[in-house]
Write a structure and sequence with these properties.
By secondary structure, the chain is mainly α. The chain has 18 helices and no strands. Helix 4 packs parallel to helix 6. The protein is globular and about 55 Å long. The N and C termini lie far apart (48 Å).
Length: 415
C-alpha cells in the first residue's frame, strides 16, 4: 500500500503539464514569496517608527497610519497606467518591474534615520506595485473559464498565505536580528522572486500597438454584467479597508493585552499570521465550491462570517482569544478575494485583463489607503477596541453592496 501511494504521488508530481499549469505552480511560489516579502515588516512597523523619534501615542498612531497607507496611495494612482502597459507589452515584464523595484526600495528602508525618510520610501514602493495583480491576470487569461474559480483560488493562497505568514517570520526575524536586518532579508526574498519570474514564467503574448488598445469606455460596453465587475472593484476596496483597518494597531493592541510584558514583536507576528493557516487550507476548497454553486454565494458567506468574527475581537481579554478569532478570519479571507477575482475573470474580456485587474488593484490600493487611516483615526478617539467594532460595520456595508450587485447573476442562474 505504501509503495502504491508513493508511486501515485510520483506520477502526479511528474505528469506532463500544460503551460497554464506550469505558470500556476511558478507564480504560486512567486506570489507566496512576494506576499511574505511585503508583510514581513508589518508586525513591527509601528514599533520601528517608535525607534525613529520621540512620539506621543497619538502621533505614533498617526505616523503608523501614514506609513501603512503611503504605498497604497501611489498604487491607487499609478496602477491603471501599469495595467495599460501590461496589455500593451505583456504581464511578465510587469512582474519583473515590480519584484526588482520592491527589492531595492524595501532594502533601503533598513537604512532610514527618521520617519520622513521611511514614509518617502513607502510612497516610492507604490510605484513598483503590481506583482500579484499581474500574476493573477497572466494566470486568468490562460486558464479555462470552467476552472477559473479553483485555479484563482489556488493562486490566491500563495499571496494571501504569504501575506499572513509573513508577519510570523517578521516577528521571529526581528526578534533574532533586529528591525533593520529584517528589511534587508525582505529585499533578498523579493530579489529571489525576480529571478523566479525571469527564468520560469512563460507568457504567450503578442504586443499590441498603443493605438489599437480599446478605451475604458469600449471595454465597459463589452461587459455582460458591467455593474457586477464595477461592483467587485468597490467590494475589493472595502475588503482591503476592512482587513487593513487593524494593521496599524494590531501590535499596539497586543502590547495592551499583554500588559506591557512579554515579547510583543514575536507574539504580534504569531497572531497576525494565524489566519494564513486557515486560508491555505480553505481557499482551494472555496474556489471549487464557487465553481459549483457560484462565486457570488461564497463571497457573501465569507462576508457574513467576517461580520460575526470581527465584532467580538473588541472584547477579548487575552491574546489567545484574539488568536482563535484571527483563525476564523482566515477562513473568511479564503472566501473573499478569490471569489472576487473569479467573478471578474468570468465576466471580463481576456484581451483587457491587464487593465481590468489593474483597475481592481487601484480600488484594492484605495482600500489599503483608507483602512489604516480609519484604524488610526478610530483608535485615537475610541481606543483600539473601537477599531474592531467599526470594521464589523464596514463589512456589513460590503455585504449589502454584494447582495445588490450580484442579484442579477443569481436571478439568471435560476432561469
Amino acid at each position: 500500500m505504501i509503495a502504491l501511494f508513493f508511486q501515485r504521488l510520483k506520477e502526479r508530481i511528474t505528469r506532463p503539464r500544460q503551460r497554464w499549469e506550469q505558470n500556476l505552480i511558478v507564480l504560486w511560489f512567486g506570489t507566496f514569496m512576494a506576499g511574505i516579502g511585503f508583510s514581513l515588516v508589518m508586525p513591527f512597523m509601528s514599533l520601528y517608527i517608535d525607534t525613529l523619534g520621540d512620539f506621543t501615542p497619538q502621533a505614533l498612531n498617526l505616523w503608523s497610519g501614514l506609513a501603512f497607507s503611503a504605498t497604497f496611495l501611489v498604487t491607487t494612482l499609478i496602477s491603471p497606467w501599469w495595467g495599460r502597459l501590461a496589455d500593451q507589452k505583456g504581464r511578465k515584464l510587469m512582474l519583473l518591474r515590480a519584484s526588482l523595484g520592491m527589492a531595492v526600495v524595501i532594502g533601503m528602508m533598513g537604512l532610514v534615520t527618521n520617519v520622513y525618510q521611511l514614509v518617502g520610501l513607502r510612497l516610492l514602493q507604490g510605484v513598483f506595485s503590481g506583482y500579484i495583480s499581474n500574476a493573477t491576470a497572466l494566470v486568468a487569461t490562460g486558464t479555462p473559464k470552467a476552472r477559473s474559480g479553483q485555479v484563482l483560488g489556488t493562486l490566491s493562497t500563495g499571496a494571501v498565505t504569504g501575506q499572513l505568514l509573513g508577519p510570523l517570520l517578521g516577528g521571529v526575524t526581528a526578534t533574532a536580528f533586529g528591525y533593520r536586518t529584517t528589511f534587508f532579508i525582505t529585499a533578498s526574498v523579493l530579489f529571489v522572486v525576480f529571478l523566479l519570474s525571469l527564468f520560469f514564467v512563460h507568457e504567450e503574448f503578442t504586443p499590441v500597438e498603443k493605438e489599437a488598445l480599446q478605451p475604458a469606455s469600449a471595454i465597459l460596453k463589452e461587459l455582460k454584467y458591467p455593474h457586477v465587475v464595477i461592483g467587485m472593484f468597490v467590494t475589493t476596496m472595502i475588503i482591503q479597508a476592512s482587513n487593513n483597518s487593524i494593521s496599524p494597531i494590531i501590535s499596539l493592541y497586543i502590547r495592551q493585552l499583554l500588559g506591557g510584558s512579554g515579547n510583543v514583536t514575536l507574539v504580534s507576528g504569531i497572531i497576525a499570521s494565524i489566519p494564513g493557516v486557515a486560508t491555505l487550507l480553505a481557499a482551494p476548497r472555496m474556489g471549487r465550491l464557487g465553481d459549483r454553486i457560484g462565486s457570488e454565494r461564497v463571497l457573501a458567506a465569507g462576508l457574513i462570517l467576517a461580520i460575526i468574527v470581527y465584532f467580538p475581537m473588541a472584547f477579548v481579554s487575552n491574546v489567545w482569544q484574539l488568536g482563535i478569532l484571527r483563525f476564523l478570519i482566515g477562513v473568511s479571507d479564503a472566501c473573499l478575494l478569490p471569489a472576487v477575482n473569479a467573478l471578474i475573470t468570468k465576466y471580463s474580456p481576456h484581451h483587457a485583463a491587464g487593465r481590468i485587474f489593474s483597475y481592481n488593484q487601484s480600488f484594492q490600493a484605495t482600500g489599503n489607503v483608507f483602512g489604516p487611516m480609519i484604524g488610526s483615526s478610530v483608535s485615537s478617539f475610541f481606543g483600539y477596541r473601537g477599531v474592531f467594532i467599526s470594521t464589523s460595520f464596514l463589512v456589513l456595508l460590503n455585504y449589502l453592496l454584494v447582495r445588490k450587485n450580484t442579484a442579477e447573476i443569481q436571478h439568471d442562474h435560476k432561469k
